[in-house]
Design goal:
The chain has four helices and no strands. With 134 residues, the protein is an all-alpha fold. The longest helix is centred in the C-terminal third of the chain and has 32 residues.
Length: 134
Amino acid sequence: MPAVYAIDLIEKRDKKKRMDRSIIKGWNVHYQTLAEVEEEARLKKQKEKEDASLLEPQGDDNTQDDADREEGLETAEEDHAAYNRKTGSFSGHYGKQPVKDESVKNQIDAILSEKKDAFHSVMSALQQEQEKNG
C-alpha cells in the first residue's frame, strides 16, 4: 500500500504566493517596437497641432503663418543638431547665450579671476626663481 502524505495547505498557499511574486507575467509586459513609439509620437504631435489650430483665430494673413512655419523648422533643425546622444540632452546650447543673472555673472567672474590670480602668482614665483638662479 502506497504511503499517504498529508498536504499542508498553508505551505501550498505560501509557495503559490512566492511564485506569483517572483515571475514576470507575459500578459503584464508589452514590448513596444520602435515603429509603435514613433507612431505614437507622430499622432501626439498631430493632435497638438490640431488643438493649437482650433485655438488660434483664423485670419487672412497667410504670410505670417508661412514665416512661423519656416522659423519652427529652423529651430527644430537647430535642436536636432544640438542633441547629444551620449548624455541624452540638448547640451549643444550650453554657453551660447549670454548670462543674464547677475549672481551667476559674479560667480563666473570670481572663478575665472581666481584661476587667473593663481596662474599669475605661480608665474611670478617662477620668474623670481629664474632670476635668482640665472
